[in-house]
Design goal:
Order of helices and strands: HHEHEHEHEHEH
Structural class: alpha/beta
Helix content: 40-55%
Radius of gyration: 25 Å
Number of strands: 5
Largest sheet: 5 strands, parallel
Strand content: 5-15%
């Protein structure tokens, strides 16, 4: 074997080993969405959320939602929802269950099609009523995962209000 042939063979072998295709053979184990736990708190279907935030805790939840991939706009009082609903396209409205009539009136006056997800107070009675009338309802004890799941299911569905309300 000639020296030029040996040099060419070594160069070809080195090029094959150093190529990006050779390095990628183990990367298939790290595909996004294949059991990677950090994606648990990532919105699979980001939406535009209008949230009534009346406390510092509500504002923290809104900030966390924005970190998961949702576009979150805050309003201090449910009576001001129509102003925001007229300005922009919102997919979901998050507000207290006790504000449900105000939310419905504000959505109607704005001509909005946002889906309302009520957050029931800590009383069991209110939670039961909220769950009876809405496909997706939350409580103050709902986990972050519950919140993301409710928003995701609402974004995928046509409506969040059950028949009979």
């Amino acid at each position: 074997m000639s020296n030029s042939f040996k040099i060419a063979a070594i160069a070809a072998l080195a090029a094959a080993i150093a190529s990006p295709a050779a390095m990628a053979c183990g990367e298939s184990l790290f595909r996004v969405g294949k059991g990677v736990s950090y994606r648990e708190y990532q919105a699979p279907l980001p939406g535009n959320i209008l949230m009534v935030a009346q406390s510092a805790d509500d504002r923290l939840v809104a900030e966390w939602l924005s970190h998961t991939g949702h576009n979150v706009q805050l309003v201090d009082d449910a009576t001001h929802l129509a102003e925001f609903l007229k300005e922009g396209r919102f997919d979901v409205v998050l507000a207290a269950f006790e504000d449900r009539e105000t939310v419905a009136a504000q959505e109607a006056s704005a001509g909005a099609s946002a889906k309302y997800i009520p957050v029931a107070a800590e009383t069991e009675g209110e939670e039961a009523v909220a769950r009876a009338y809405y496909k997706q309802a939350l409580t103050k004890e709902s986990t972050p995962r519950d919140l993301l799941k409710a928003i995701h299911k609402t974004l995928k569905s046509e409506t969040n209000v059950k028949v009979g309300m």
